[in-house]
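Give me the fold.
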Amino acid sequence: MRIAVIGVGMIGAHHARIYKSNPRCELVAVCDTDAERVSAVAASLGCQAYTCHETLLDCEPLDAVSIATPETARLAPAIAAAKRQLAIMLEKPLGRTLPEVDTLVEAMTEANASPAVNFILHADPRFDRMKQIVADGGIGRLVSCFARRRGTRMGIEIYAPWTDLLSSTLIHDIEMALSVNDAPAERVYAEAVVRECAIHGCHDAVVATLRFTDGAIALFETSWVLPPAHPEPLDPAFHLVGDAGLIVIEGASQGLQVLQQSNYSLPDVSHWPTLSDGMVGGALARSLDAFVQATIDGKPYLVGLQEARRAEAVVAAMKQSIENERPIKLMGFRG
């Protein structure tokens, strides 16, 4: 499968490395408006470099594209790829606001495109097993969910200027909570701490609740305030309580601890660890490999456009709840 990556920041560069190592793929090109960066990535992976996505799509015969640009620049390359009937992997979130998300969804629908959306928890073996247990009735009817996703201050320093905590970080757990419960979500309520992120118009920390129509509830906690010296670069958890059992997922290190003379760390081996050969592993690699295989086999993607839009609606409702200081009903919610 001939594939290109549009947007080669940190995550996009990982996309390119993963496709390069997949024997079912030929990484044809990478594209980014940063000419120096895209040239360096292309040279390291032995593919072509472009600074304009339209030029790339016009010049290279492709089967698929990964679009890993910031969400503010995701619509145009997605539409261009859809018009050329390419298979598409979109990074999340899909837009900065729910109306922007709906513009992308409508454009994809009009172009008869069904892109995959990269919610990598679905490719984490722990979450995959959790979903199977729930689907098989292994913990009975869901009663409650608790999700934690705390990051270090790098979030404020690097991400807050162009994205926000709910859209970039907590949306993973929101989408997973929605995916394991057959009942629709009906109401959200959220509170936020706004201090250092005030200059960026977003939140330092958020605590939120989500209620489902079957009576189940979910509690979410997220922040970008852990000190840089925190031993785990990301501090996540996901707990599911059923009326006949409990499932607990903790941490991103999966038990790996490193103690050195002046440092103690819990390296992330769950999400996108860099391997000894310079390639990328973890859930991100499994997610992109699953996209490739599903495209080749003509099978459904792990997460599609409508599932992603459902999570985006909850994110938008949480933001409105914070702003209006009241619960928000999700039925008919348009952001």
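The longest helix spans residues 305-324.
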